[in-house]
Amino acid sequence: MRSFAQFALASVLLVAAGAAHADETKFLQSFKGNFAGKGTVQVTTDVPNVGVSCRFKSNATSTSLSLDGNCRGLVVVSRAISANLKITGAKYSGVYVGSRTGPAQLNGSRSGNAINLGIRWAKEVNGDRKAQMTVEKRGENGIRLTVIDTDPKTGKNVVTSRIDLTRT
Q1: Which residues have CB under 8 Å from 112's CB, separation 6+?
Q2: What is the C-alpha to C-alpha distance for residues 130 and 89, in angstroms, rounded to an integer?
Q3: CA–CA separation, 27 vs 30, rounded Å?
Q4: Which is nearest to 65 in space by CA: 102, 129, 114, 118?
Q5: FRET label pair with 5: which of 23, 46, 130, 165, CA 20 to 30 Å apart?
Q6: Model pTM score
Q7: What gap in Å lies between CA 69 and CA 44, rounded to an integer?
Q8: Cα 49 from Cα 116, distance rounded (Å)
Q9: 71-107: b or e for each residue (b if 16 or more CB lie within 10 Å)?
Q10: How far is CA 56 from CA 48, 92, 150, in A?
Q11: Which run of H or E residues covers position 6?
Q12: Residue 69: what are its φ and ψ, rounded to 5°?
């Protein structure tokens, strides 16, 4: 009887894991497509925000998500930006490219419609190498990218980047 109970428990866990993976796949697939939008970027907490216009192409598989794009600010300044994430179980990890410090490491997990990621910059930004990034699915056709860092002077969290994108 005990082996049947263990088999039944293992079967339930396997089915639950398969359902969770299917749910993650559906979530990731919802990011596929071309997106465009506007937002603001603040290079460090002690400089003003700059308005930007951005275009991204997003691709997804059952275990990965990539966002590749370009943002333009002040009419003439343009920067390539990308985030490439791999999903292992419930954990997301990858690389963000677009910071002036070089490629940054990303690690985190999903909560509802948002992927919450810790950033480890290649070099110090605002007095340390840490920040947070959120990649949030907004409705059927929207994505919000947000970066929050700590102001070294006040110790308060500051939104240093927020870009709202809509499927094109």
Answers
A1: none
A2: 24
A3: 5
A4: 114
A5: 23
A6: 0.83
A7: 21
A8: 23
A9: bebeeeeebebbbbbebeeeebbbebebbeeeebebe
A10: 24, 20, 27
A11: helix 2-29
A12: -160, -165
The two beta strands, 104-111 and 157-167, are unpaired
Per-residue confidence in pLDDT tens, the chain, 168 aa: 544 444 333 333 333 333 344 578 999 999 999 999 999 998 888 888 899 999 999 999 999 999 999 999 876 678 899 999 999 988 999 999 988 889 999 999 999 999 999 999 999 988 899 999 999 999 999 999 999 999 999 999 999 999 999 999
Report which of 75, 76, 72, 83 is spatially closest to residue 40, judged by C-alpha positions. Answer: 72
Tokens of 53: 């216009």
- Grouping H, G, I as helix, E, B as strand and the rest as coil, residue 64 is strand
Report which DSSP code applies to 67.
Answer: E
CA pair distance 82, 25, nearest whole angstrom: 20
Distance, CA of 47 to chain centre = 24
Dist. CA 22–CA 62, nearest whole Å: 8
Six-digit token pair at 39? 């937002």
